[in-house]
Input
Amino acid sequence: MAQQMKTAERINKRRGTRDEKSLLPLTVASGARMAGGERRLQIVRVATSLFSERGFRGTTTKQIAQAANVSEAIIFRHFATKEELYAAILDDKACGADFEETRAALTKVMATGDDHAVFENLASRMLQHHEDDQQFMRLLLYSALEGHELFQMFWDRNVRVLAEFLRGYTRERQRQKAFRNLDPKIVVRAFTGMIMHHSLVNNLFDKSHHLLDIEHDDAARLFTEILLHGVAATETPRTETRGQRIIDTKKKQRK
Output
C-alpha cells in the first residue's frame, strides 16, 4: 500500500507541471460567448477528449458539438474540413514545437560527444511527455488501429523526423569509430522501442506500476546503459548476420 501511495503521489506531482492553458474548460454554459480563438481551442480540446475515449469512428461532429455546447455549424465555421481539425489537434499538442525544442537541446549535447547524455536526455523527455499527455497516447493508438489520417500526420511530422535525426547521429558516431558498425535503423529502433514499451505498460496497462516502479531519470539512464553497453558481462558481442551464419554452416558441411 505504501508503495502504491508513493507511486500515485509521484504521478500527481508530475501532472501538476502541465501548461496552464490546459485549464481552459471543455464545456461552457449554453449561450455564453467566447472569443474566436478560445472557442476554436475549446472545440479542439473537446474533440481530443472524445476521440481518445471513443476513437474516431465512434465520435461524430454532433457529439463534439453537444459536448462543447455549440451547434455543428460552429464546428464547421472553425474547421471547414476534418483534416483541419486533426491538424489543429496536433498543433494544440505542440508536437512540432516539442520536437524542435528537443532537437535543439540534443544538438547542443551532441556537440560534446557525450553519448550517455544524448540518449538519457531524449529518453527522459519522451518518458515525461508520455506520462504528461496520456490522452494523446490513447488518441494515437486509436488513430493507428483505425488507419486514421491523424496518425499518419503525426508519423510524418514527428516520428520519421526524430528517427532520421538519431540515425544521423549514430552514423556520425560510427564514422568516428565510437559506435560499432550496426545498422543505424536497428540501433534507433532498439532504443526507442524500450522507451515506448515502458510508457505503454506504465501508462495504459499497469498504471499501479506493479511490474516496474522506477523514476523517469533512472529508467532513461538504465535504458541508455543497455543501449551503449548491453547486459552481457563479456566484451565480445555476437553480431553475425543471418547471411554469415549460412556461409559458416556451408563451410562446416563441406568439411
User: Anything to note?
Assistant: The chain has twelve helices and no strands.
